[in-house]
Write a structure and sequence with these properties.
Strand content of chain A: 5-15%
Oligomer: heterodimer
Helix content of chain B: over 70%
Largest interface: A-B, 43 and 46 residues
Radius of gyration of chain B: 17 Å
Order of helices and strands of chain B: HHHHHH
Largest sheet of chain B: none
Order of helices and strands of chain A: HHHEEEEEHH
Number of helices of chain A: 5
Shape of chain A: rod-shaped
Distance between the termini of chain A: 97 Å
Structural class of chain B: mainly alpha
Number of strands of chain A: 5
Largest sheet of chain A: 5 strands, antiparallel
Number of strands of chain B: 0
Number of helices of chain B: 6
Strand content of chain B: under 5%
Distance between the termini of chain B: 56 Å
Shape of chain B: globular
Chain lengths: ~270, ~180
């Protein structure tokens, strides 16, 4: 008797005698004898098992009915291997990310003299990792060698001494200290006019990973604007840019403190 | 927690691609002689469920990480994230497609075979969207090894898809 029902989901030919119209592929049936693509071998195996049961006095399955099968997992070992491999990969990647972050942090502490070579008019734009090398005037290892420049840092903040330079136009630029957080290093440069007022704030260093770039592109203009408006480093934290806002404020405050100590400004 | 978010995301993408490849090889009956087809199917089911589990961990850790800026609503409604809304949104859609494919098969498969098939094939779109999500919002997206991994996974998945398509075309021609 052939079954003329249409092909099953998996395209098997269900016209072979002994196969049901739709081969069961869920776990309701014992999958030992199915899915071998050799219907004759499966039928022979099934008949052999029935013969054994009859000979052993075991209860035979009801005619036309199905015995409730034992659930089987043919790929049990492979399942365990896949689970173990996934967990190991997750753990390994997590450890690798954390280690590279720590490595970036230990090399992020730079002497202040290196910082002062930055162009006083430099404004950092970090829309792509390669442009972060424009801040290489300060050359922290977290931003140069852009292959590794995207690694964040996770150690306690490291600072560098601020530096000062004066220009012929009467403006004075003071580089603030660099502060490092889990995402990277933040450093700003304050520009004071002849009257001691804060006329501009330039960002010298920012984290360069893609997420931080997107966040900072939104946050830095707001922070700059507020600093110039308030003429101080007391800026509000920009939502979603907590670390940047905090380190921006600290770096700007260090620049203002240095300028005040040198008599350049009277800002607090 | 941020590191865990990144690593679980990468592993979830790889598991989803592996489940896809296993499924296509099985349905194309390109299972070879050494391993039985039920082994392929069983592993395909397992990899799919494992991928969904890792996606769930990835989403949970992302939301719990206070520095990520991700809210609970951003993880469930695509396009509502405050930054990179659609980079996150593709991931949300991919999660829904994965979940639909898994829960219409386990613990019990949908009775309507045509509908089941359509929903199950939606997981292919889910894998593609997960790779787009990984590329657009992943921290490692510009790294060579990451790009290479995505290209390799896409190539293998495309090969498996081609195998499946050509096997069904061959059968139709043979009829």
């Amino acid at each position: 008797m052939t079954d003329q029902s249409p092909r099953s989901t998996y395209g098997w030919d269900s016209s072979v005698a002994g196969y049901p119209a739709h081969p069961p592929l869920d776990d309701k049936l014992d999958t030992r004898s199915t899915l071998t693509f050799d219907p004759h071998a499966d039928r022979a195996a099934r008949l052999a098992r029935l013969t054994q049961r009859r000979a052993g006095g075991q209860e035979l399955p009801p005619p036309g009915g199905r015995v409730a099968p034992r659930r089987r997992h043919p790929s049990k070992r492979s399942r365990v291997a896949a689970l173990g491999l996934s967990l190991a990969t997750t753990g390994g990647l997590t450890y690798a990310f954390a280690s590279s972050a720590d490595a970036g942090a230990t090399s992020a502490a730079l002497p202040g003299a290196a910082v002062s070579t930055a162009d006083s008019a430099t404004t950092l734009t970090t829309t792509s990792p390669s442009t972060s090398s424009s801040s290489a005037a300060t050359a922290p290892s977290t931003t140069t060698g852009s292959a590794t420049g995207r690694t964040p840092t996770t150690t306690a903040p490291t600072t560098t001494a601020p530096t000062t330079s004066a220009s012929a136009t009467g403006t004075t630029t003071v580089n603030g200290a660099a502060f490092t957080n889990r995402f990277g290093t933040v450093q700003v440069q304050a520009v004071f006019g002849a009257d001691g007022k804060l006329t501009a704030v330039n960002v010298l260093q920012l984290p360069t990973d893609r997420k931080s770039v997107a966040i900072n592109n939104r946050a830095v203009p707001t922070l700059n604007s507020e600093a110039l408006t308030t003429q101080s480093a007391k800026v509000h934290t920009v939502s979603g840019a907590t670390y940047t806002s905090q380190d921006y404020a600290k770096s700007l405050q260090s620049a203002i403190d240095t300028a005040r100590a040198k008599g350049i400004t009277k800002l607090a | 927690m941020w590191y865990l978010t990144r690593s679980t995301g990468i592993v979830a993408t790889l598991l989803g691609a592996a489940a896809l490849v296993w499924g296509f090889f099985f349905s194309a009956r390109a299972t070879g002689r050494r391993l039985r087809p039920n082994w392929w199917l069983d592993l395909h089911n397992w990899l799919g469920g494992l991928a969904l589990a890792f996606v769930a961990v990835h989403v949970a850790v992302s939301v719990l990480d206070t520095d990520s800026g991700l809210r609970l609503v951003d993880a469930f409604v695509p396009g509502t994230a405050r930054f990179q809304p659609w980079a996150i949104g593709w991931g949300v859609l991919a999660t829904y497609l994965f979940a639909a494919a898994v829960f219409t098969t386990w613990p019990r498969r949908l009775r309507n075979r045509s509908l089941w098939r359509v929903i199950h094939l939606g997981s292919v779109v889910g894998v593609a969207l997960s790779m787009v999500h990984a590329y657009q919002s992943g921290t490692e997206a510009t790294r060579t090894w990451f790009k290479g991994g995505i290209v390799a996974a896409s190539a293998i998945a495309t090969y498996a898809l081609g195998l499946r398509l050509f096997s069904s075309l061959g059968k139709r021609v043979a009829r």
